[in-house]
TrEMBL record:
Family recorded in the similarity comment: Belongs to the DSD1 family.
UniProt cross-references to Pfam families, sorted A to Z: Ala_racemase_N, D-ser_dehydrat
Transmembrane segments: none
Domain D-serine dehydratase-like: 252-353
InterPro entries assigned: Ala_racemase_N, D-amino_acid_metab_enzyme, D-ser_dehydrat-like_dom, D-ser_dehydrat-like_sf, PLP-binding_barrel
Domain (Alanine racemase N-terminal) ranges: 19-232
Keyword Magnesium recorded: no
Species: Algoriphagus jejuensis
The keyword Lyase belongs to this UniProt entry's keyword annotation: yes
Full protein name: DSD1 family PLP-dependent enzyme
Domain of life per record: Bacteria
Keywords, in A-Z order: Lyase
């Protein structure tokens, strides 16, 4: 039976071949540059896709929450890192997981560090998250006082073990000069390594964001790369130049429920609860919530004439259709929508249907 025969409502499709190609490309880049690839699994959030990643030599992953870390534990990973400023209210859950798993957390302040010193019952590693220009979270790269306070406080407990410095240059998503952003990141991590390596000879530095890791080749003496979105890519990454649209490995299959040829619009069952509401805006101010692809037995193809999702509400989506799409589509057909932000779309949908008709797990499923 075709995978298409299983679809009656919005369904997130995954191309295993494209996903594997994306993973292999990044794994090859890391190996070529002598770096360890420790991908952020907030995008895929899947045991099965994790098994694919292990085939390319990936042994450690990153989670964005303790819930996701729990989902990833017991799956044969050498280590799981929680890349979010640790929430001390979750110390009991952390202790439970750390009984049998190698875990690390992210610290950005003295208060949480002290609570872990007081509350840990099992060994846990930690990275100090560094802010070198993004401004979302982290210890400012020049705040040596706070860095050393965290290190001194953590040293009071043999359970809390320093692993190194983590930097997420998220401003590569909106800064045109990614090379300049990465030069700042490299310099920041190099400076910290030189300053603290004699005291902590085993410390590592990790940088993680897909736009930078996808296009930069020179990572300096950074030890580990931790991008996440590269596993699937999406239209935002294509817009940023991280990939081609042909590299996007997930799309949302949606039923056509109405057609207005006068307005050149197609109404689909597929909205914010399926795609989230990430949006791209073109130079004319038009909003784009996803782009149409044609589904077939072998996957999907990108049409020459672009049609895009111009608006979405909770369950509805309105496609601004090309003439060729209007001439070929009818009510009851299935169309594919390439997502703006694949991480959020996957999180909304909670499962994947492969092109060979198999369901693939997701943490939220």
């Amino acid at each position: 039976m075709s995978y298409l025969d299983q679809i009656t409502s919005p369904t997130l499709l995954i191309s295993e071949s494209i996903t594997r190609a994306n993973i292999k490309r990044m794994a090859d880049k890391a190996k070529r540059n002598g770096k360890k690839l420790t991908p952020h699994w907030k995008t895929a959030q899947s045991h099965e896709i994790g098994n694919w990643a292990k085939e390319y030599g990936i042994r450690e992953v990153t989670a964005s929450s303790i819930k996701m870390a729990e989902y990833l534990c017991g799956q044969g990973w050498d280590a799981v890192h929680i890349a979010f400023p640790f929430n001390p209210l979750e110390t009991p859950e952390l202790n439970q997981l750390a009984e049998s798993e190698s875990l690390s957390v992210q610290l950005v302040n003295l208060a949480t560090t002290q609570k872990l010193v007081d509350g840990l019952t099992n060994k846990v590693g930690f990275f100090i998250e560094i802010d070198a220009g993004y401004g979302r979270t982290g210890v400012h790269v020049s705040d040596f006082g706070l860095i050393e306070d965290i290190l001194r406080t953590a040293a009071k407990s043999e359970k809390l073990q320093f692993r190194g410095f983590y930097l997420h240059p998220g401003h590569t998503y909106y800064m045109p000069d990614k090379a300049e952003v990465y030069e700042q990141s490299r310099q920041a991590l190099h400076m910290l390594k030189m300053k603290y390596q004699s005291e902590f000879p085993n410390l590592v530095t990790r940088v993680g964001d897909t736009p930078g890791c996808a296009v930069i080749e020179d990572f300096g003496d950074v030890d580990e790369l931790g991008p996440g979105n590269f596993v699937f890519f999406d239209l935002m990454q294509a817009e940023l130049g991280s990939c081609a649209k042909e590299d996007i490995s997930v799309c949302l299959a949606v039923p056509v429920v109405d057609i207005s040829k006068d307005r050149k619009e197609i109404l689909i069952h597929g909205g914010g609860v399926h795609l989230a509401k990430d949006v791209l805006v073109d130079t004319d101010g038009n909003k784009n919530f996803g782009e149409v692809v044609f589904l077939s037995e072998n996957g999907w193809t990108i049409p020459a004439d672009r049609s895009y999702l111009k608006s979405i509400s909770q369950e509805h989506g309105v496609i601004k259709a090309s003439d060729s799409l209007l001439a070929s589509v009818k009510v009851g057909d299935l169309l594919g929508i390439l997502p703006i932000h694949s991480c959020m779309t996957a999180d909304c949908m909670g499962a994947y249907l492969s092109l060979d008709g198999k369901w693939i797990d997701h943490c939220e499923g």
